[in-house]
Amino acid sequence: MSSTHPPSFGDTREAGILITEEIRMQVEIIRGYLDQLDRGWIESETMRSFLRRHYR
């Protein structure tokens, strides 16, 4: 039977740092998606504006 020890403060701190880094990476991915959506919206709005001006 093996003895299980509670995590030390250092282990808990390291786990928190890893979780924080994972969250930061996910935030950057989400920012990338939002930037792509924004660019697509601007491009589509620009195209609609162009079509309104030239094909009415």
Topology:
Layout lengths: L8 H46 L2
As residue ranges, the low-confidence spans are: none
Largest sheet properties: none
What is the β-strand count? 0
Tertiary shape: rod-shaped
Residue share in β-strands: under 5%
Counting H and I runs of at least 4 residues, what is the number of helices?
A: 1
Helix content: over 70%
**Radius of gyration, in angstroms, nearest whole number:** 24 Å
Topology as a string of helices (H) and strands (E): H
Mean pLDDT: 85
Helix/strand-derived category reads: mainly alpha
Task: Tell me the distance between the termini.
Answer: 81 Å
Walk me through this protein's architecture.
With 56 residues, the chain is mainly alpha-helical. The protein has a domain of 34 residues. The chain has 1 helix and no strands. The mean pLDDT is 85.
Throw out a few tags for this protein.
1 helix, mainly alpha, 0% strand, 56 residues
Short description:
This protein is mainly alpha-helical and 56 residues long.
